[in-house]
Amino acid sequence: MIFVHLFRFFLTAIITEQWLLGAAHCYIIRGKRIDPKEMFIVAGILDYQDKSCKWRQVRQALEIHLHPKFKEKQISKNDIGLVKVEPFEFNLAVQSIPLSGKPFPIDEEVRCTAAGWGDTDRMSFNSVLRKLDVIAAQSPKACPGLQINQRRRVICLVQDEGKGLCDGDSGGPLVCDGEMVGVAHQVYLETYKNFFAPPPDSMDCGAREIVHTYMFTCPFLDWIKSYVPEVPPQPPHCFYRRNSYHPTPDYRRINSFLLPFLNQSSVNH
């Protein structure tokens, strides 16, 4: 899932036939919110330059909603946004991703999946969707340099040189155990605090000592549900320690995550 505004490309995730969830900063240009009439969302494709793909579906945005407490150019400051479109037709290539309504374990590494069209090299242009197996965590070790109040709204990827978020991946989903738990937010160096300014040369995609962050969707479920009633309710607590949490089985849970036609092997991203 990708959205296009003039010459800008970002990711967003389909959560129902008519609603998309992404990063709020993607919908801001030079301090102003994008006009929905200028935004087009393309679904059902692997290569967004392939105009002949039979699965391709294009929708114009109808509404854009940014979290009311979103603050541009600040780490973990409610970087969540919703886009409403005319309903997509679900098929083998176009599906929704279920939002997780469960808390996330603290100080524990979790195997997850990320995907995006981001450029893997500053000197090259990428138009093909890529999938990456990652390890996600919510801990001081995984999110170095962030204060507790910042960490409670983000999930970080465990550093793995050569892998991680790349330029253009913002807004993409982090999927753990078949459910979406995060929205691609930003990357930072622990000693580099101007998060949304042009990065220094040392912040190449997948470079060592870069921290990759996702906005954690759980703390925002109540806000999302105010627009999208189908999403699960926000739990009393969005984090838990493994030995103290005993969830009630949810037999309606969707256990599989569909990224149609993707190569199942990991790729550097």
UniProtKB/TrEMBL annotation:
Claim: Signal is one of the keywords in the record: yes
Signal peptide, first to last residue: 1-26
MF terms (GO), sorted A to Z: serine-type endopeptidase activity
Keywords: Disulfide bond, Signal
One of the GO biological process terms: proteolysis
Gene3D superfamilies for the chain: Trypsin-like serine proteases
PROSITE patterns found in the cross-reference section: TRYPSIN_DOM
Pfam family of the protein (one): Trypsin
Keyword Magnesium among record annotations: no
Record-annotated Peptidase S1 domain positions: 1-229
Record InterPro entries: Peptidase_S1_PA (IPR009003), Peptidase_S1_PA_chymotrypsin (IPR043504), Peptidase_S1A (IPR001314), Ser/Thr_Proteases_Immune/Dev (IPR051487), Trypsin_dom (IPR001254)
SUPFAM superfamilies in UniProt: Trypsin-like serine proteases
Family of the protein in this entry: Belongs to the peptidase S1 family. CLIP subfamily.
Protein name per Swiss-Prot or TrEMBL: Peptidase S1 domain-containing protein
